[in-house]
Structure formats: C-alpha cells, structure tokens
Amino acid sequence: MAHQQSPPAAFAPFQIPTIAPDATFREVRLILGDQLNHQHSWFRSQDPSVVYVLIEARSETDYVRHHIQKVIAFMKAMRTFGRHLSGAGQAVQYYTLDDPANQTNLVDTLSQLIDQVGATHWAYQLPDEYRVDQELKGLADGLRSKGIECVVADTEHFLTTRTELSEMFGSKSYLMERFYRKMRSRYNVLMELNGKDPLSGQWNYDADNRKKFDHKVMVPTWPAAYENKTQSIAETQSIEAMLAAQGVETVGRMPSGQHLDHPTTRVAAVRWLSFFVDKCLPHFGTYEDAMDGQHLTLFHSRLSFALNVKLLHPLEVVRAVETAYHRSQETAAPITLAQAEGFVRQVIGWREYMRGVYWAKMPDFGMLNFFGHKADLPQWYWTGKTQMNCMSHAINASLDHAYAHHIQRLMLTGSFALLLGVHPDQVDAWYLGVYIDALEWVMITNTRGMSQYADGGIVGTKPYVSAAAYIDKMSNYCSGCYYDKKKRHGDRACPFNSLYWDFYHRHEALLAKNPRIGMAYMAMRKFEPEELQKVLTQASIYKVSVNEL
Ligand code: FAD
Ligand code: SF4
Predict the structure, then answer these.
(1) Which atom of ligand 1 is nearest to the CA of 288?
(2) 493: phi then psi, degrees, rounded to nearest 5
(3) What is the predicted pLDDT for the residue at 3?
(4) Where are the domains of the chain?
(5) Which of 419, 390, 369, 403 is nearest to 480 (CA)?
(6) What is the percentage of the chain residues whose pLDDT exceeds 90?
C-alpha cells in the first residue's frame, strides 16, 4: 500500500521528519546515531514500501554520563541526516528524545513502529558496539517468532570485516605493524607502482614524528564549524534545552552561543577534511606527539567524530591525504612522506586494527584487569581542578571541548590513571563519557588496551607510562607548573616521578621479564635503597592525598 508521508522535500530548519500516523510500510529500516553514511547503498534508490527510522533513545543518553557536547553533536548529526534523507524523497520517521511516542528503550520504540506501520520485514546495519549488537539480535529473534523477517546489512564503512583480524592472527600475538602493511598493500595507499613496496622503500616514519612544538610554525585557526551559523547555534540551543527539560545528566561544559568544535553534517565534514589537508597535514607527522599549553589541537585533524558517525569514509579521508601528498611534490612546498604516512597509519592502521581487536575479544575484553587495579579516579578528572599543569590543561580542554588529542589521552590522563592504579571500569567510564568521538569499540580498545594495559599486552607490547622527563620533552607544560619536574620526592616533587617508579616497583613480578621494559628496571636497580624508599614513600603520600594534587 502506498504510504502518505509528511512533510515533503523542503524543510524548515528544525522540522523533524515524520510519517502520517496511519501510513503503512512493508519494511522498517533502522539507522543508528553512528550510522550516518550518506553513500550507503540503501539510499541509492527509493522504495515507497520502505520507511527509515532514527531514534534519539533515552537508553543511549543514559548508559553512561556523556559530555553535553557529545549528546548534542549526535542529535544534531542525526537530525540533519534525517532531514537529508527526507529531502531526498525517502520516508523517514524521526523520534526526538521528548517525543511522547518515543519509549525509554531503542528496541521498544522500534518494535512499536514495526507494529504501527504493519511491517512484515525490518532491517538494520551491523552495529559497531557489542551491547547494541546483542540488543538487536535479541529483537530479531523475538520478531521472527511473530513472523517478521529481519535483514542485516553491512554499514559499508570499514575497510575490514569484523572477523578479519582474528582470522589473520589466530591464536598468535596481534601485531599492528603487520596488519597495517597488509592494509597499505591491499588498498594501494602510498605504494610504489609495483604495488608491493611502500613509497620510498620505508613503511613507517614513526621515529621522525616525535618533535616538540617549537612555536616556529603557525598553527592554523579552525573556521567555525562550516555550518550555517545562526541555524546551527539555534539548533544546538534547542537540543540543550530539551536535554535539560528531560533531565538527561551530562558532564563537561557547553559554552553558550558557540558552535561545536566538530562537524556534524556531511557538507561541513568534507570542508573540514579539506581544511585539515591544506593547513595541517604539512606538519601533522612532525608534531603528532607534541603537546602545547597554548594549542590544544596543534595539527591534528579532529575528524574522529565525523569518521565514527560515518559522515566520512576512511578511504575518502586517506585518499584526500594521499592526493595532497602527490600534488605537493610538484610545488615549492612538498609535503614530506613522514606527514602523510603518519596520518594514514592512524586511519587504515590503528582505527581498523582496534575494531578488529574489539570484535575478536569482546565481551571478555571489557572485564580484563591485568594488574588487578582497584583505586578510584581522582575527583578532579571531572572538574579539572588540579595544580598539575599538564593534567589541568588536558582535563579542562576535554571538559570544554569534548576533545584531547591522542598523546594527551595516552600519556597524560591515561598514564596518570595507570600509575595510580585506577580500576579500568572507572577509566573506561571517564573516556566513554568525556570524548565526543567515544564509542565503545574504539574507546575500550584504546583505554583498557593501549592505555591501561589491562589486557596484559593484546593491543600494546608494554604499558605506556612516563615520568616528568617525557612530558617535559614533548610539551611546554612543566615550565609553568606548581610542581618541580626534576624532583622525585620532597616539597612540590612532580607526582608523575614518584608514581612512575612506584608503578614499576609494585608490578615487578608482572613486568620485569618484558624485554621492552628492561631499561626501567635496570635504572631502578641503580637507586640507592634509601633513595628508592623516599620515592616510594612520596608515592604513597600522593596516593592518599590524590584529590588534593
Ligand atoms: P588525528 O590525530 O588527526 O588522527 C586521525 C584519525 O585517526 C582519528 O580521527 C581517528 O579516527 C584515527 N585514530 C588515530 N589514533 C587512533 C587510535 N589509537 N585508535 C583508533 N583510531 C585512531 N578514538 C576514538 O575515535 N574514539 C575514542 O573513544 C577514543 N578513545 C581513546 C582513549 C584513549 C585512552 C586513547 C589513548 C586514545 C583514544 N582514541 C579514541 C584514539 C585517538 O586518541 C583519537 O582517535 C584521536 O585523538 C582523535 O582526534 P583526531 O581526529 O584529531 O585524530
Ligand atoms: Fe606535569 Fe609534573 Fe610537568 Fe607539572 S612538573 S607539568 S605535573 S609533568
């Protein structure tokens, strides 16, 4: 039966696409908030017997306390996507969070719609998160018993299948570098014409990409979100008001009357990518590991949200970088291979690799706690109120922008939590809540895996921890700090220093045999016993008074 859909193509800024209450459809297709893939084959044709559904689900806003900007970004991106589909002639039922017909749970709202429109079929794209995957499988089983057929589609986003990594390594150790080289060859990215060798003969320029920011290069100012300013801010404010009225609890800050710092539409994301390639790529690799008190983002792309909600395809991003690299070779300012390779490795290497680890190891991965850590996360992770300059900058930036770049996440907030021995559940909850790009598949593998070594070495080969020397080498934080970067104990001794040695000391039985850590134990053995005791005592004092640091 033909459906009646209202309204048709043109939408007022805040209009929410809905179907007529008595409309009927043969098939309901679910689009999750992180499945906003404009190029998906579902949308290549119009089938009047199909209705698409997007749901702002209370179960999703509440399963962890999210950053206010994260919730707004998801809802803005979903609403724009719903309008886009509807404008392109597809039937769309969009449920806002405050829609009285929207149930608490995503699955309940979906079942209700299937019933309402009399559908005999429903379809969903493979979810990226284990939790949602289980929910939708459960729904499919339940509906099948009532004669309603379910079709599962691929998201057409990732460059590997869910099971590829486990098939590649079997029961052997997972090696990111081997996987990455395979991806480069398969997708012919930065390769010689023979398709076998990497451009210039070298696969990895990691060693060249570790420079401190020297303030000699200008850091580009990002344009305001590339969106219709008035409309964008108004929609942000209306979603914010709705969240408050619905009592959704969030963390972080939302500066009033401002844009989000991340693109939430396809058009903005594509422009954002161009800006990154033109202005940031030439220095991306060089300063990839640098941290700076004046510049939060430096030359990083801030594309993670757009990628994770699928507004951008990973290959589209990688090809843009590759093309810019090749074109620049004919100009007076060629981009070096180290810049392009450094970026490509993150997207077709680390990002796909983490997804492979996730699907190979879940659900057990979510419970791993190799060190048996039990401590609480310091309270100031939620407020940014600490005298540690590096931590204050990374945490306040995260609370203000729902963003920090990789090294701030790994070597500041992550490393400090690991040194303290915080329970990985608390670390996961913080990262999952605070960052705009946080979805479990890519958060937990980075947090519990790479950062906390709670997986005992599946993702990384050693724990990423450091004392003040590394932070000072890679940033300008220490010069303005209340604490003394050179002191291991005593008045104003940098907490990273004593906690670093305390970490190695207490986990000697688990770590001493790791060949990548041997140097640390050799250095520790050179300490005079009295000095080591003072360092360990200092660490105990800091652990007891951690909320006052
Ligand atoms: P860029 O530095 O410009 O890198 C480009 C892209 O590469 C990123 O957008 C991202 O898609 C990809 N990428 C880079 N590093 C990684 C990585 N280690 N794993 C997966 N993809 C990567 N990334 C998330 O997308 N979501 C998370 O929830 C998340 N949580 C993290 C938690 C911890 C403790 C750590 C150490 C890292 C986490 N990362 C996460 C990875 C990485 O820090 C972010 O992807 C990156 O900082 C996003 O900023 P950007 O877009 O400017 O990245
Ligand atoms: Fe961070 Fe220590 Fe340096 Fe202060 S002295 S900025 S706490 S590393």
Answers:
(1) 2
(2) -65, 135
(3) 43
(4) 27-153, 164-225+260-361, 379-548
(5) 390
(6) 84
Nearest in space to 132 (alpha carbons), one of 190, 189, 192, 59: 59
CA distance linking residue 171 with residue 194, whole number of Å: 32
Q: 481: Cβ below 6 Å to ligand 2?
A: yes
Enter the tokens of residue 311.
Answer: 């507004």
With a 6 Å cutoff on the Cβ, whether 72 touches ligand 1 is no
**Ligand 1 centre from 168 Cα, in Å?**
23
Angle at 17 between CA 12 and CA 22, to 5 degrees: 135
Residue type at 78 in one-letter notation: M
With 50 as the cut, is the pLDDT of residue 331 above it? yes
Q: What class, spelled out in words, does domain 379-548 have in CATH? A: mainly alpha
Residues 6+ apart with CB under 8 A from 124: 29, 30, 32, 136, 150, 152, 153
Please tell me the distance from the alpha carbon of residue 319 to that of residue 273, in angstroms, as a whole number.
11
DSSP SS3 for 280 = helix
* Protein residue whose Cα sits closest to atom 43 of ligand 1: 406
CA of 379 to the centre of ligand 2 (A): 18
The fold of the 164-225+260-361 domain, in CATH, is 1.25.40
Q: Phi and psi at residue 396, in whole multiples of 5°?
A: -65, -40
Tell me how far the alpha carbon of residue 476 lies from the centroid of ligand 2, in angstroms: 10
**Which residue blocks in 117-256 are alpha helix, DSSP H?**
130-144, 164-169, 176-186, 229-245
Could you give the angle at the alpha carbon of 209 between the alpha carbons of 206 and 212, nearest 5°?
A: 145
Integer CA distances (angstroms), 78 to 61, 75, 482, in order: 14, 5, 44
* Residue 181 beta carbon below 6 angstroms from any ligand 1 atom: no
pLDDT digits (tens, 9 = 90+) for 343-372: 999 999 999 999 999 999 999 999 999 999
Q: Is there an atom of ligand 2 within 6 Å of 386 CB?
A: no
Is 185 in contact with 196 (CB distance < 8 Å)?
yes
pLDDT digits (tens, 9 = 90+) for 432-477: 999 999 999 999 999 999 999 999 999 999 999 999 999 999 999 9
End-to-end CA distance of the chain: 67
pTM assigned to the model: 0.94
165 ligand 2 Cβ < 6 A: no
Quick one: fold of 27-153?
Rossmann fold (3.40.50)
Contact 395 CB / ligand 2 (< 6 Å): no
Q: What angle do CA 71, 358, 457 make, to 5 degrees?
A: 120
Place of tokens 């161009």: 274
